[in-house]
Amino acid sequence: QKEVEQNSGPLSVPEGAIASLNCTYSDRGSQSFFWYRQYSGKSPELIMSIYSNGDKEDGRFTAQLNKASQYVSLLIRDSQPSDSATYLCAVTGNSGYALNFGKGTSLLVTP
Amino acid sequence: NAGVTQTPKFQVLKTGQSMTLQCAQDMNHNSMYWYRQDPGMGLRLIYYSASEGTTDKGEVPNGYNVSRLNKREFSLRLESAAPSQTSVYFCASSGWSGTGATQYFGPGTRLLVL
Questions:
Q1: What is the mean pLDDT of each run of 10 residues along chain B (114 residues)?
Q2: Which of A14, A63, B11, B114 is surrounded by the most beta carbons within 10 Å?
Q3: Cross-chain Cβ contact B56/A95 below 8 Å
């Protein structure tokens, strides 16, 4: 079973700070990497996707990928209380279609 | 454009009863998926359909069957429900962009098996 590991948290950061969320994966063949946000009682929604080594920025969000270290991270700048949610890391599996999900990191942004 | 829709939103079953969860997407996606999400377990893939006419088992297929009715619809059937199948079920769909298959999720079905 290919694994995707995340710290469960909760990760608590003050409003306006940078939140750093980390994820490691075991399958060296994985090609696509995703970050989803899930509010309590809701479905996952896509935040970022990243496919090549390096950084990818979208607004307050930056995804970082290091395939050699099998490591993906998500940085949230200027964190807001509305960012409080569970963040799921997902990695493509053997089929290239289905995703393997981590168990998620709970983020709490305090005013 | 509704995206991915699921019915029902909530269901209570007795052990041994059967039911079908419905999923439809209007994004012209080729691939569709069924996941279950349990506390502390994350999202686990039950079955997926890479394209119309094909289905494959995921990580936790036991106790479930699926049907890819057409390109839009992918249903999940529980033939004889068990309390261990109490969960939140999510359907997702994806197109293929060449660099990866971004999945979009439906709102979920909350299932309680007594």
A1: 92 97 94 93 91 92 96 96 97 75 92 97
A2: A63
A3: yes
